[in-house]
Amino acid sequence: MKQKWNLISLVGALWLSLNAAVAYSFDHTHRDFADTLSIYLVNGQVKYGELKAASESLPNHPFLRYLQSLQQVDRAQFEAFSANEQKAFLINAYNSLTIKLILDHYPVGSIRDIGGLLANPWKIEFFTLLGGDIKSLDPIEHEFLRPRYKDYRIHAAVNCASASCPELRSEPFVADKLDRQLDEQMARWLHDPSRNKVDTSKRKMLLSKIFDWYRDDFVTYGGSVEAVIQKHAGDVFTAAVASKFSTDYLPYSWQLNEYNGVK
Hints:
By secondary structure, the protein is mainly alpha-helical. 54% of the residues lie in helices and 6% in strands. The strands form 2 sheets. The chain has a 3-stranded mixed sheet. A two-stranded antiparallel ribbon has the order 1-2. Strand 3 and strand 4 form a beta hairpin. The protein is globular.
């Protein structure tokens, strides 16, 4: 009887060990998302129609595999990730699940059209992340990314599927390159005159509305909006900051960031 129980204990230990190995096998290269972006993203614009058609016709499409892999990670697994792995996981989750939200309602002209006049698309529950702790987009950004990592660069990385949002990056964020990728995102965003620019004739810096909406993050974690701008795009904005140009904000377009066939 003792030998029998020893065998049962051994089998149980092996089962737990195997399940632990499976549980922690999340692909931190985010390869399936990389493959998706390489095909369906052009100059920061998404081929939503093509992606919707392909993912509906192929049950094992890389995009669907990626979404499934994200949702298989439970809270305990997530907490065992390194800080950069967690941050990359959440940014990529936000961006890929935003695409999923658009696909679920496509065709649509704007993410804000989803759910009707009184609905908030960022609060719609359409997935389960971290074992059900997160079910909509808002908590990813406002309950996890912003308060936990205290990094203003997140605002250049998460993409709201809109024309005025910082461009969706053409590759996933990965832990071992994360700081470089986030710095690049800030620089690209600030150097894009459709999103941030200097009007010397009016002595104004015309910034993305994001700098207004999340001013506290830029001040608290970057010193000031001006300090953040100089750090990541000083060559464009240094003279404007030194000359104490006033700050105004560009109109924010919520038009869908859909690829229109023009490269």
